Automatic annotation (TrEMBL), chain A:
The chain crosses the membrane at residues 47-71, 83-102, 108-129, 141-158, 170-191, 203-223, 235-258, 278-302, 322-344, 364-384, 390-411, 463-481. Residues 854-863 have a biased composition (Pro residues). The gene is slc9a3.1. Residues 710-737, 775-863 are annotated as: Disordered. It holds the Pfam family Na_H_Exchanger. Plasma membrane Na(+)/H(+) antiporter. Exchanges intracellular H(+) ions for extracellular Na(+) in 1:1 stoichiometry, playing a key role in salt and fluid absorption and pH homeostasis. Major apical Na(+)/H(+) exchanger in kidney and intestine playing an important role in renal and intestine Na(+) absorption and blood pressure regulation. It is found in: Apical cell membrane; Early endosome membrane; Recycling endosome membrane. Keywords: Antiport, Cell membrane, Endosome, Ion transport, Membrane, Phosphoprotein, Signal, Sodium, Sodium transport, Transmembrane, Transmembrane helix, Transport. It comes from Sander lucioperca. GO terms for biological process: regulation of intracellular pH; sodium ion import across plasma membrane. Residues 90-489 form the Cation/H+ exchanger transmembrane domain. It catalyses: Na(+)(in) + H(+)(out) = Na(+)(out) + H(+)(in). This is Sodium/hydrogen exchanger. GO terms for cellular component: brush border membrane; early endosome membrane; recycling endosome membrane.
Length: 863, 164
């Protein structure tokens, strides 16, 4: 609580600074009443100021001496606007930070409601300081600077397939529902006024309809927050999400149409004008969508060629998205729909064209923008309320508006759903309808439109703004708070939170295809038929023009899922490894079964099968075993047998780079505007220390038990990963030491059984053997030159050099474990065999180990 | 039954042959089109009459929630199990009650595009089998198949609104 007060005070002061001296005096008087922080400016003001002036004048003089210009000047007016903007953003974000730090509160009260409350407080402070409301949400700021990114984000993260499957319903709700709400509300209010329920108000039917249209805008933010928390089923989710998104656009269009009518004036409206209005409604809505589509395709096309400017690649979508908004607005088409469809149409192509890091960047930046402006909007919605001038109270008007918005929302939803259900394969359940109706929260769009009203023509503008605010507060706060209990209480069907499985995805594909086939056979043109047609069209034309050739290859759905799953496994693998202090376990525990099974099955089979095993392993391993950063973006489809041959040299090179210890001087932090390098600098001292410790342990073990040191490769990998972990977990040496020890024993046990299982002769053995010990020093990064320096003296003394180094050498070299590699290196090995006696001694054992290498990471369900 | 026989295929013979299905152009572009076609023909038969044609189509009829369960009636063709069985048989070409790795591979091969290499296909198949394979026999039995798709809304995914 103290923190919030401090913030508030701080902000207050800063704001007052901008206000000028009056406000400053106010605050100093107000602050003296606080006992905790006694503010004794008056006591010291004169000497303080004198001292300051002296300082400043000296500085100025100092400046004059050298250049003749003063060094320090106070230029508040120069920076005032951007400064205030930045401050506002900071305040809003800090508010969010404070609010989010109380999860118990946000669980009950949605964040948007809390932000509004925060806005009230802030507004109160400002008002107390200024005695007037200097800050309020102007339509320009709202519609040009705050809204576009929210809509772009919503469009961009739209689940496309779900959206288009339910497009009919969404359009129905968005268009018809909005018109229905606007019309009925306007008419009813007008009727009530005629009936004398609201006293004397200077509002005509057209003005009422205008008001109805602006209040019909449903705001998705609060509802979606709740929906995400409770995981409602996806159909309900997309219905509400899609509706509220398109509905914003439709509302603005409708508002403009009625606004034009109001401008035209009542008597001059005839049938022709009304028809023109209706036509313009559709032209504006669909025209806007088309502009958005065009821009979306443009972005996609551009992203095809941005490979060389990866660093600004993510910027295109923002700039062009904004441009699509502005263009549509310029053409007096629906800007909101434009930017929505821009996002919807380009997401697929952008995601496949851009590099993975850019995709993530876009995703995050998008969220940052959207979340930020959402926060600002809600705070402003709160602040706007603290203004005496806007409040014109009319109980009848306010209450009736509230009542009608709620009731007509329900009625409208039920009628439309009933109609929709006649044509839907899976009807929308009654409970879902209730939630949809109840989720009709009004938000900032309504308020933004209300402030756009022309007070020349609409005399009761202030009443309308006030009422809009009340409706917003009522729905966001009251309905928002009750939404979650409501969802829980009604037992709304939840989404199944299931792990993605490959078989499921494959099966879904099969279902899709068979549905298309059956529709073809039964000769009817249904959704699936159209979808099939669209797919073919898209594959044939859109993809060809909009996707890069690599992206087109990767595009396949099932393969994508496969890739994603593998990535996930890799991440799990690392996580789990980190948790247990070693990566050893994955290979040993879970994968061993698979290997054994396979070994049993294919033991007697011929070489190709084993090759296959290898290839498969390679695909899986390349994901998890190699250097983790690059492997994430590793394009697996390129890792064909032929590809390996070509990349082999690069691999070796890469390997050397990765694992050679570098001289300190190379680890300079580099700055480049065009490239984002991950700093590979790491705490090598620790690594080397650990490594030597491990070597000691291993040599000790092997000496004692007559066994070769176990695979150390994964440990290296682990360390590399650790170093690159963003949070930089501290590597507790002693802990790791023991963990490694554990892992070591585990692997030994498996080794034993592994060698039993593979007791017979392997036709492929020669190759394996060759590969097992790539002990050619030339292919090895040699840690030696650096190692002695970092090895603790006690260790350097009592360990013979060879035994400390060789196990890890062998381990390192195995990293790019590819069949071609092995074969190529085979002759070399023979030559080294004679020299490296230590390695020779444990070749048989390591060879067994190699065979059980990298079984595919098991599916999560296996565990 | 919602289906009213609007199929363009049914000719005067009252029976259909595989060639009749082959005449549908869209179907030839469907990766699993020929599997669907062969699903219409019971083993060893060359023709399908209207009744069995409709019976196959009935698999795709949406399940009605209000169906009376009198127990005597055999399980309707559009029940979850029957739908799944139909899907299962699309894979299980040799009808041994198991989807072997090879059978899965065949389906994958037709469905994935050319760009995916054979090795990747195999690892995909391998992974898919591992996911579903509970008894470690390197093949997916119907039970395993059903279990693996437990969370999938079959009714949603394998239903068509036939003209009614």
């Amino acid at each position: 609580m103290a923190a919030t007060w401090q913030y508030a005070l701080c902000i207050c002061m800063l704001l007052m600074e901008s206000r000028g001296s009056d406000a400053g005096n106010n605050s100093s008087q107000g602050a003296t009443t606080l006992a905790v922080v006694s503010w004794r400016w008056e006591h010291v003001s004169t000497p303080y100021l004198v001292a300051l002036w002296v300082l400043v004048s000296w500085l100025c003089k100092f400046g004059e001496v050298i250049t003749g210009i003063s060094i320090v000047t106070f230029k508040w007016n120069h920076v005032k606007t951007p400064y205030l903007v930045a401050l506002w953003i900071l305040v809003a974000v800090l508010a969010k930070l404070v609010i989010e730090s109380f999860p118990s509160v946000t669980n009950v009260i949605p964040e948007s409601a809390l932000l509004i409350c925060f806005g009230w407080i802030l507004g109160g402070i400002i008002w107390a300081a200024d005695l007037q409301q200097t800050f309020s949400l102007t339509p320009t700021v709202f519609f040009y600077f705050l809204l576009p990114q929210i809509i772009l984000d919503a469009g961009y993260s739209m689940p496309n397939k779900l959206f288009f499957t339910n497009l009919g319903g969404i359009l129905l709700y968005a268009i018809l529902g909005t018109v229905w709400c606007a019309a009925t509300l306007g008419l009813s209010l007008w009727g009530c006024q005629a009936g004398g329920a609201m006293g004397a108000l200077d509002i005509g039917l057209l003005q009422y309809l205008l008001f109805g249209s602006l209040i019909a805008a449903v705001d998705p933010v609060a509802v979606l927050a709740v929906f995400e928390q409770v995981h409602v089923n996806e159909v309900l989710f997309i219905m509400v999400f899609g509706e509220s998104l398109l509905n914003d656009g439709v509302t603005v269009v409708l508002f403009n149409v009625f606004d034009a009518f109001v401008k035209l004036g009542g008597p001059r409206i005839n049938a022709v004008e009304i028809i023109k209005g209706i036509i313009s409604f559709f032209v504006v809505a669909f025209g806007g969508s088309l502009v958005g589509l065009a821009f979306g395709l443009l972005v996609s096309l551009l992203s095809k060629y941005t490979k060389n400017i990866q660093i600004i690649e993510p910027g295109f979508i923002f700039v062009l998205g904004y441009l699509s908004y502005l263009t549509a607005d310029m053409l007096s088409l629906s800007a909101i729909l434009s930017v929505t469809f821009c996002g919807v149409s380009c997401q697929k192509y952008l995601n496949s064209n851009m590099a993975e890091s850019s995709v993530n960047t876009v995703r995050y930046v998008m969220k940052v923008f959207a979340n930020g402006s959402e926060t600002i909007i809600f705070v402003f919605l709160g602040i706007s309320a603290i203004d005496k001038t806007i409040w014109v109270w009319n109980t009848g008007f306010v209450l009736l508006t509230l009542f009608f918005t709620l009731v007509y929302r329900f009625i409208g939803t039920f009628i439309q759903t009933w109609w929709l259900n006649q044509y839907r394969l899976v009807p929308i359940a009654f409970i879902d309808q209730l939630i949809m109706s109840y989720g009709g929260l009004r938000g900032a769009v309504a308020y933004g439109l209300a402030t756009m009203l022309d007070d020349q023509r609409i005399k009761e503008k202030k009443l309308m703004i006030g009422t809009t605010l009340i409706v917003v507060y009522f729905t966001v706060i009251l309905q928002g708070v009750t939404m979650k209990p409501f969802v829980t209480w009604l037992k709304v069907k939840r989404a199944a939170v299931a792990e993605v499985t490959l078989i499921e995805k494959v099966q879904n594909k099969v279902f899709e295809h068979s549905l298309v086939a059956i529709e073809d056979i039964s000769g009817q043109i249904g959704d699936n038929y159209l979808r099939g047609k669209w797919k073919i069209f898209e594959e044939k034309w859109m993809s060809r023009f909009l996707l890069t050739s690599e992206a087109r290859k990767k595009q396949d759905y099932i393969f994508n899922v496969f890739h994603q799953l593998n990535l996930k496994d890799a991440v799990d693998y690392v996580d789990e490894g980190e948790r247990r202090g070693s990566l050893e376990f994955v290979r040993n525990e879970s994968a061993f079964i698979n290997f054994k099974k396979k070994l049993g099955d294919e033991f007697s089979e011929v070489l190709p099968d084993i090759m296959y095993l290898e290839v498969e392993n390679q695909v899986f391993c390349s994901c998890c075993r190699r250097d983790p950063v690059s492997s994430v973006s590793l394009q697996m489809h390129e890792k064909t047998m032929q590809g390996t041959r070509e990349t082999e040299d690069i691999d070796a090179h890469h390997l050397l780079q990765q694992h050679l210890y570098k001289g300190r001087k190379q680890h300079l932090h580099r700055y480049s505007r065009n490239h984002l390098d991950i700093n590979t600098d790491d705490n090598e001292v620790q690594e080397i220390f650990q490594r030597t410790m491990r070597n000691r342990l291993e040599s000790f073990k092997s000496a004692k038990m007559g066994l070769a040191p176990a695979k150390t490769i994964t440990k290296h990998t682990k360390k590399d990963q650790q170093q690159k972990m963003p949070n930089g977990k501290s590597t507790d040496t002693s802990k790791n030491y023991y963990a490694n020890n554990e892992g070591f024993e585990l692997s030994e046990g498996d080794n034993a059984s592994g060698s039993e299982a593979s007791g017979g002769s392997f036709p492929f053995r020669v190759n394996y053997k060759a590969g097992a010990g790539i002990e050619n020093p030339t292919f090895m990064p040699d840690p030696d030159p650096m190692a002695p320096m970092q090895i603790p003296p006690w260790q350097a003394e009592d360990e013979p050099d060879g035994s400390t180094v060789s196990p890890s050498q062998r381990a390192q070299v195995r990293l790019p474990w590819t069949p071609t590699n092995l074969r190529r290196l085979a002759p070399l090995r023979i030559s080294t065999q004679s020299t490296d006696s230590f390695a020779q001694a444990d070749t048989p054992a390591s060879q067994e180990k190699d065979k059980k290498w990298p079984p595919p990471p098991p599916p999560p369900s296996d565990k | 039954m919602g289906f009213n026989g609007t199929s363009p295929l049914l000719d005067q013979r009252g029976e259909l042959r595989p060639e009749d299905f082959g005449a549908i152009r869209e179907l030839s572009m469907n990766p699993i089109g020929d599997r669907i076609i062969s699903a219409f023909f019971s083993p060893g038969k060359e023709t399908v009459d209207f009744a069995s044609f409709v019976r196959i189509l009935a698999h795709f009829h949406p399940t009605e929630t209000s169906r009376s369960r009198d127990g005597v009636q055999p399980e309707p063709a559009n029940s979850r199990t029957r739908k799944l069985k139909f899907a299962f048989q699309l894979y299980d070409q040799d009808r041994d009650g198991k989807i072997s790795r090879e059978e899965l591979l065949q389906v994958l091969r037709t469905m994935l595009e050319m760009q995916v290499t054979e090795e990747q296909l195999q690892s995909i198949a391998e992974r898919a089998i591992q996911e579903a394979d509970l008894d470690q026999d390197d093949a997916i039995s119907f039970d395993e198949f059903r279990k693996s798709l437990e969370k999938v809304d079959i009714d949603h995914k394998m239903s068509i609104r036939f003209l009614s």
